[in-house]
Amino acid sequence: MITRERAKAEVERVAGKAVRKAAHAVGREDLAVKGAALEARGRARRVKEKTKDRFR
Fold first, then answer.
1. DSSP secondary-structure letter at 55?
2. Binning pLDDT at 50, 70 and 90, where does residue 1 land?
3. pLDDT on residue 50
4. Cα-Cα end-to-end distance for the chain
5. DSSP H helical segments within the chain, as ranges?
6. Which helix (H) or strand (E) holds 27?
7. Could you say which DSSP state residue 56 is in?
8. Residue 43 in contact with residue 11, Cβ under 8 Å?
9. pLDDT in tens, 4-34
10. CB distance 5 to 42 below 8 Å
11. Among candidates 2, 4, 15, which has minimal Cα distance to 41?
């Protein structure tokens, strides 16, 4: 279960980064903001999973 949640967090972070960079490349700042938010959510989930590992 832990591995699955970590993978989800990492995929979310990487997808957000890709969306953000692609949006910047084509000049879509509104989409770049959504990509940045997705990336931040993935980072937050990754931190949450690391914290859960410390207390197990």
1. T
2. low
3. 85
4. 13
5. 2-26, 29-54
6. none
7. -
8. no
9. 888 999 999 999 999 999 999 999 999 999 9
10. no
11. 15
Tell me the C-alpha distance between 12 and 31, whole Å: 15
The pLDDT value recorded for residue 53 is 75
* DSSP label of 28: -
> Which residue shows structure tokens 């990336």?
39
Burial of 16 (0-12, 13-18, 19+ CB in 10 A): buried
- Which residue is listed with tokens 């989930």? 45
CA angle 38, 40, 22 (to 5 degrees): 50
Q: Is 1 helix (H, G, I), strand (E, B) or coil?
A: coil
Tokens of 29: 């700042």
Q: What is the pTM of this model?
A: 0.83
R_g of the chain computed on alpha carbons = 13
